[in-house]
Amino acid sequence: MNKRIKGHFLKAIFMTASIISSAQTKPANPFGLVYENAITKNISGEVNIHPVTYKLNGIDISANVYTPAGYDPSKKYPAIVVAHPNGGIKEQTAGLYAQRLAEKGYIAIAADAAYQGASGGEPRHTDKPVFRTEDIHGMADFITQYAGVDANRLGALGICGGGGYTLKAAQSDKRFKAVATLSMFNSGVVRRNGFQDSQLATIQERLKKASDARTQEVSGGKIIYAGVASITDEEIAKTKTDLYREGYEYYYRTHAHPNSTFLYTMSSLLDLMTWDATTNMDLIDQPLLMMAGSKADTKYMTDAAFNLATGTKHKELFVIPGATHIQTYYVPEYVAQAMAKLTEFYSKNLQSATNTK
Asked: In angstroms, what CA-CA distances link 176 with 56, 269, 284, 353, 355?
């Protein structure tokens, strides 16, 4: 493996999710939100947050629904489902964008993926593409039944890994009338080839480790985790790529939350390494907006997916000048630019039930 990015990739770890969570602190916000200017209490007539739980394939899903100012359940509003990044949860950037969308008049939902965050599912931190894609279908199931939602004006926003899974969900789920991604991350390609194709020489070795991990799981042994459970300031400083250095800072320092972790089960690689968000991209015929920072070292994934989206007549690549991948999660000027483009995009494409593709 290239030594420059050796520290960014898989480390086998043997520990339980309870040990991981107990080492972290609880956010001060009453809703657990860790982003800037987050809602701290519901005030009549303003944007409100509604924690909800619903079942998806027998698993309890924990979500937050954001309603716009002056929300009246007897009226009809367009709605957006927001899928969180890999390792992320609804209280971080997914919640930030959901709240901002509610401020623009949308009902928005951000849910923790099954097996992750506050949602149910065992083993903890299972990260299989079929589950993450089903999470997005499940958000659509729930929010289209929510009081005041116009099911014919449903949009999707996927961030980072949630962007890749949103592309996959939208290929078949035509309830989504407008599809957007921010800093899209193709989880399958990176887990298989390594970030920026740095692990091509170890694909078979890592598949063997994943296979062995599954054998251990089914025999009742300890769950083997891949990823990073904790990291020192010195290790962060030595991390060369922006994605991982800034990601560690975001998830473990500036926007830390006890439910958020970089861990996933090693056995998940059996599914991740054979998956690609861009397979069948031509099936997306809905309007498509893909956004990425001009300095994002992940932009190559957005570019590749965008070029393969040949089935839609309306697609746009929006580049945020000066932004890296992680900076689009929280830096006010970059969030503002992304939100301005999202508002324009959804306003145009979720106008009415007779939305034209």
From this structure: 19, 29, 10, 12, 11
